[in-house]
Amino acid sequence: MTALSVTTYGVDADAVVDGLVGEKVASRIAAKDATLWGPEAESEASIRLGWTDLHETSRPLLAEIEALQAELRAEGLDRIVLAGMGGSSLAPEVITRSAGVELTVLDTTDPGSVARALADRLDRTVIVVSSKSGSTVETDSQRRVFAAAFEAAGIDAASRIVVVTDPGSGLADLANEQGYRKVFLADPNVGGRYSALTAFGLVPSGLAGADIAALLDEAAAVAEHLAGDVTDNPALRLGAALAGGHAQGRDKVAIADAGSGIVGLADWAEQLIAESTGKQGTGILPIASGDVDDPEVAHPADDVLPAIVGSPAEPPAKGVVVDGELGAQFLLWEYATAVAGKLLGINPFDQPDVESAKIAARGLLDATPEPEPAAFTDGGIEVRGSAGLLDGVTSLDGAVDALLGQLAPNGYLAVMAYLDREGDDAGLADVRVPLERRTERPATFGWGPRFLHSTGQYHKGGPAQGVYLQVTGTPAEDLAIPDRPFTFGQLIAAQATGDAQVLADHGRPVLRLHLTDRKAGIETLRGILR
Questions:
Q1: Any signal peptide, and if so, which residues (predicted)?
Q2: Quick one: three-class SS letters along 338-403?
Q3: Strand 381-385 vs strand 510-515: parallel, antiparallel, or unpaired?
């Protein structure tokens, strides 16, 4: 059996685990018992439990993926771009980075990011367009601009586009009409954030060169144990650790790595936990920590549980250590999150607040309103805020102080950057840890619009504990979206404005900073926010 362990320190989960064993929660999940989460969740749960046996049901995909990869390589096509958001991109990113193979993950609408992806080895590129619904605006826009670029270069676009989608989606119909290279239909009974071992995780990863058969083997090796009604079931222990202390106020989990060899698991788990639990005014806030030395892990507050992946030199005084191979970890965290949903009394398979920001952005694009005037501009940074936040404030420093002053003793700060996460803007992420030290509260950092498919659900549906710092920037150059009345620059601006609008409508404090000069503005912010 593949080694998989969950060890708790300073957290008494035994009584909770005993209760879960008594209710046969693990075996009922494995048997796809949709009644576990209550009558209101039953209809959704009945079509969302296909993930429990993907280590078996995804096997037929392996030969198809291997055959397509061989075809592509024979044609000299060795660069894979993935156009996908949330559950369509996070697992493939972890899989390929951990395997050390190249995959260009395009999960942004920043025009600079998209232009850079278009300019890189187009002659050797295949794009995997990945969307369950087929209607995701980001993914559709990326498909359009790549198709146009292929045609402009004299390349048959259809031969370079591979689609992963659910049966019956509009994208599946389009792919068949256009004659795209290959269409992979995923299991429709698996939600996006539970889809790591479906076609959504396996197709782009396998085409990029990762050993996806090994992932299924790793999951298969632990599946029986995770389905067992026994007290040493790692999923029950992790689920109990995540949610068992929730009633006592421990409602945040900081996920850090300690030599596991897995790259970026926290980013994948962040979406899984935030979207699954952050609703009805409750939930568990995941913090994707960079290192075991980060404040929320090394010196956690009483409401934060460190979860360390790998083998730390010293275990946490209070926390949980999770060790195992990547395929096993995927299945473990999925089981544990479903268990946590049971303990919290919520449906872990819906995401009722994700659509709100999308609807707001769509409305802004349709209306093309005039930009909201800034409250003031300081050093080339336009400053806006939710109602009352900036009363009497006239400086950037003062605006930041006003936002941080709204932090409650059990609160958190979310930094939301609608910028280029892999270009010159990447350094802004460095502000997260200094902000934690400054506020002595947990801070999350999300790149927009990527995080809208992840922690965005928790921001709006979870407890009203957060304060929100949004950073946007004027692009150096915009990029048109073929056959659309808006550009990538207009799309990302509408997504940011829509997100801020919905947060403000929920009564959340929001400070919006727009960088008219990105490079200078980021340097200014890195100085002010430390």
A1: none
A2: HHHHHHHCCCCCCCCCHHHHHHHHHHHHHHCCCCCCCCEEECCEEEEECCCCCCCCCCHHHHHHHH
A3: antiparallel
CA dist., res. 206 & res. 68, Å (int): 10
Q: What is the mean pLDDT of residues 142-147?
A: 98
Q: Is the pLDDT of residue 35 over 50?
A: yes
Helix, strand, or coil here: 413?
Answer: strand
Domain ranges of the chain: 5-24+230-323, 53-215, 353-529
The SS3 call for residue 108 is coil
Asked whether this chain's domains 53-215 and 353-529 adopt the same fold, the reply is yes
Fold of 353-529: Rossmann fold (3.40.50)
> Which residues on adjacent β-strands are paired with residue 185?
165
Kindly report, residue by residue over 292-340, the tens digit of the pLDDT.
999 999 999 999 999 999 999 999 999 999 999 999 999 999 999 999 9
Residue 341, φ and ψ in degrees, nearest 5: -60, -40
Residue 337 CA to residue 191 CA, distance in Å, equals 13
pTM for the model: 0.97
DSSP state letter for 487: B
| Burial class of 132 by CB neighbour count within 10 A (0 to 12, 13 to 18, 19+) | buried
In 3-state terms, what secondary structure has residue 319? strand
List, in order, residues 6 or more apart from 298 with CB less than 8 Å away.
292
Q: If one looks up domain 53-215 in CATH, what number appears?
A: 3.40.50.10490
Using alpha carbons, select from 216, 243, 199 the residue that is nearest to residue 87. Answer: 199
User: Taking 60 as the threshold, does the pLDDT of residue 1 lie above it?
Assistant: no
